[in-house]
Amino acid sequence: MDGIASSATAVLLGFIAAHTQRIRLGSGGIMLPNHAPLVVAEQFGTLATLYPDRIELGLGRAPGTDQVTMRALRRGHQETEDQFPRDVVEILQYFKAPQVGQKIIATPGQNTHVPVWLLGSSLFSAQLAAKLGLPYSFASHFAPRMLGQAIELYRENFEPSEYLDKPYVSMGVPVVVASTDEEAQFLATSAYQRVLGLIRGESLKLKPPVTSMQGLWNTAEQLSVENFYTMAQIGSVETVRSGLQKLLDTYEVDEFIFTCDVYDTAKRLDSFTQLMQVKSGN
């Protein structure tokens, strides 16, 4: 996909893991309809063997592409509603000790016990994560509309498992943190332009920020972009801290996953640095 650098997710995770020492790394995520479960299990089993206790696997149900691309991925078969749950269960088994008589074994993969998350922007994955007792991550960084309903459904239907004894939820949050609210809003126009490109079917590559979005979008497009970024926290350290606390008070999530679509690399890194100040309270 134009503007997205992580199509070869496992390769990118391996590169990042090789250049870091402590942080945990996870896919956000592998769109399972595009991949064979055994291949995914062996890729992430390999990563977990090379980088123990640092790798997590996030699985999504959306194809994330069109039929032509799916055929190019050799995944042109028709997916049924039951296929995704079966594929998830298959991957979970590959990460365990092989059962007696199990003919297909992921190598590496077996006994790595890679933590598996289910990702989603609707109610389907919330219900499946609850049934399987897996952690659940809602894609509110781009599809916030059903966040509250999905989290409630997940928590109400959660069944304790060998993976979790109680529900565990994360939510995606777009952030831009800068020295002032005004600077952060300026930097955020790059993200707005990216979503505008998505709406129009144009390039998703980040563009330089602009002083005003007026003239770049019409009223309907502006509303769509603003709905897309309902959960976004944009501003100074204090502004973002206050906004994130409100999200915590409202949804009581266990983790946030942050995205930061800032055009300039140095300013994006600075945004993450200031985000750490939000966490530390300094």
TrEMBL record:
Gene3D superfamilies according to UniProt: Luciferase-like domain (3.20.20.30)
InterPro entries in the record: Bact_Lucif_Oxidored, CmoO-like, Luciferase-like_dom, Luciferase-like_sf
Keywords in alphabetical order: Oxidoreductase
Limits of the Luciferase-like domain: 7-194
GO cellular component, one term: cytosol
A Pfam family the protein falls into: Bac_luciferase
Entry superkingdom: Bacteria
GO molecular function: oxidoreductase activity, acting on paired donors, with incorporation or reduction of molecular oxygen
EC nos: 1.-.-.-
Family according to the record: To bacterial alkanal monooxygenase alpha and beta chains.
Cross-referenced NCBIfam families: oxido_grp_1 (TIGR03558)
Protein name: Luciferase oxidoreductase, group 1 family protein
Organism field: Acinetobacter baumannii 99063
Lineage: Bacteria, Pseudomonadati, Pseudomonadota, Gammaproteobacteria, Moraxellales
